[in-house]
Write a structure and sequence with these properties.
Two copies of one chain form a homodimer.
Chain A (H helix, E strand, L loop, with lengths): L2 E5 L5 H14 L10 H8 L7 E7 L2 E13 L3 E11 L8 H15 L4 E7 L3 H9 L3 E3 L2 E7 H9 L2
Parallel strand pairs in A: 4-5
Antiparallel strand pairs in A: 1-2, 2-3, 3-4
Amino acid sequence: MEILLREGKKSDMPSVLELIKELATFENEEDAVEVSVEELLRDGFGERPSFKVFIGEIEGKIVGMALFYERYSTWKGKSIHLEDLIVSDAYRGRGVGKALYTKVMEYAHQRNIKRVSWEVLDWNQVAIDFYESTGAHIVEGWQVVHMNEASLNKFVSNT
Amino acid sequence: MEILLREGKKSDMPSVLELIKELATFENEEDAVEVSVEELLRDGFGERPSFKVFIGEIEGKIVGMALFYERYSTWKGKSIHLEDLIVSDAYRGRGVGKALYTKVMEYAHQRNIKRVSWEVLDWNQVAIDFYESTGAHIVEGWQVVHMNEASLNKFVSNT
């Protein structure tokens, strides 16, 4: 079963959103997905795309994707952040995830990027073991903080 | 003692790098800072800047800065990431940090950004208490993963 990897194009965005929603549903967070196909098209293409996506296909069907973008480290300079690496449930265990992961690392390496970052759920030991087997490491002691839209509105209107 | 807030310009980059190094030294990580003034100038200005910086001044002296950039959430769309919020040790406790933090939140709010994110050391309870008092929350259960340059080189050359 051959895996085809390629860059995402506009016509892939409905499938990309399906993968995003499949993962969110699995995490019991389907309602948290506010992006639309229109937003993905507006934000991911054109003069200054906000992200880039690699697509994994098996027999012409889109079964996985890696979505990433550039960040900036004040220690290392330009870095790449892997926001989502998703393989559709029915196609797990066939190497699609590893192939997409490797493609992102190759992309970063070709551009002399000094760091690739992402986030993992702390109970997901299978994923952590895989990442560590490739040379990545958990950055101990740091926590992620979010200011969401409702809190942001409230904070700004009170200042 | 009035705090002046303004956008960073090219001539601020030596002071910005000093602040970055002051924080890294405090964290016993001075050697980890690989960026140079030249890189900050190349990456932060021009057609497609990789970051934006707000500067805090007291009596004409640069005493703090907030460095941030855009990210992309597959749930919320465009987001802002606050990479560094630094106030020089001698000027702490005068409200410079809160003023810079507020300016970043206002910037995000004006652009209809649905999330501002950053990272905090898990033992830094003073910072966590402040963030929570503004409506931000710690995202429980997620860990940060890094693939650094040496590991990236090794991984890519082995695949």
